[in-house]
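Batch manifest, entry 17 of 40.
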Amino acid sequence: NSYSNKWQREVNWNVRKTRRVNGKTEYYTVRYSSHDTYLASRTYVLGQHGGPSFELQPGTHQFTYTVDLPHGVPTSFVGQYGEIKYEVLVTIDRSMRFDNVFKKPFTVVRTMNLNMIPTLGIPIEREAESSFCCCCCASGPINMKLSLPFSGFASGQKIPYNIIIDNEAGSDVNNVEVKLIQRIVFLSRSPERAQKVDKFTLYSENLGSVLKYTKKEFNKEIQLGSLPPSNEDPGDIIQISYYLMAKMKKGFFHTNEDVKIPITIGTVPLIQSSRNPNNVISMQPTAPLLTDDDMGGDKPPPYFTMEFLGNAKRKPKVFYEVNPGTQLLTKHLLDDKDFCEKLVLVENIEDFVPKAEELHSLYPEKVKVYHKDFVNIWKLVYQDKLDNGSRVPDLLIDMPKQPYEEEPSTAIYAGVGSYNFLKHIINSIVFQTSFLSYGRCDMFFVIPPPIY
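Output type: structure tokens
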């Protein structure tokens, strides 16, 4: 008697094709397939291969059998064009008769600790801009922003998402639709490399319309069920990925606009994603913590350093700090009295504006405060073109104008998480428009890794 293990994954699908034979069209079928076997083993628990026959007495017999799973085996999966399956076979070898074979499938879930991928814990957002237009006229912009606090989640968790629709067009957005999509890619190796893609909608919700000249915000959550972990290894013949999509539906004769954010599904959730830390599996340190004595005289530098600004070859006359927030950098700038002549704080979040205005009252000549959205300056440029407004000049009123060939006298520091802003910067450098029409300036941008 023996136990056998069979762990394999396979992909196959048929494609009907045509060809010309003797001037006639002929139909034929091509079968695309791939096959991988992880482990196929056999263990004899009673008797041996080729050994003498023996009689197994009537009754109940129990045998203990264990097997180690190889490291990194994929999660069990069954799809339309392929599957990853694991099963145990018990064979009773009967002399001069057909063998009795019993099969028992079992499920494997590969551990995927999301905390081991640092970029998954970073807030992420995507933006899209469109408009209602026809052959004879154009409308104002419609901006849609989809954001997540992080992009890694485990089965059973909730995905919190935020959508902001700023409709400055002269027409309504009929509906805003949100979907969570599972994308499965099946790869074949025979008779040639090809792929088959399946998509499944795991969640769908209609959030309603957005009226013209209005701004609307949606804060929702998606409850995840039991899902196989993400697997986008290019060498695997079955690859699984997920993404969240928000779509603006503008009605007939208009193109719908959508934004997508890729999501990674794992088995161990991010530490920062749990409201109750006791429910999260924490990572164990890989080495003991070092004390000051262990480190000797070479201690690491402090987390925040002014070296990249304070040791600059040139000191700016005007320094723009975009969204100073809790003013960690601002206080360092004010401590260095010779760093700049004027410090301009442009804060978009209303809750932080009073703290910034306190600094203006302490340094009325040096510190200027504006409650504006500098990161969306590309949008202000567009609005000024539509109505000949002065939004951009009002924002840059403290920036000195000078020829582009002269050394920069202005510096800008900002944390940037917007693709549109970076594209605007590139265009402004090429064509010397927007704030670069005032002359060259030094720019210090902090950019999340996914956008970088």
